[in-house]
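Tutorial handout. Part one gives the primary structure; part two gives the three-dimensional structure as tokens.
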Amino acid sequence: PAVSTSLGAEGIDYRDGSDILIADDPAAMARGIRTLLLDAELRAKLSANALLLAHGTYDWKKVGDTLLEGYESPSDTGAAKAI
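Part two.
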């Protein structure tokens, strides 16, 4: 399970309270950490959901497949024509 600032989790397609806890000030960070220390069920839920998110969205094979799709079908920006 993780507690992060919104800046620290930027670029991740997370759901606050489901995959991660977001805390943007010191007091909120302390509360989030304390909550995770005291709530085993929430720790398990965040861990399981974050793992599903990582495997479903950020798995190396999935990322590679997405890149290959982009290389195989370039957009109509003209960039492919210039090559």
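Part three, for discussion. Residues 15 and 21 are 8 Å apart (CA to CA). The beta strands are 3-4, 21-22.
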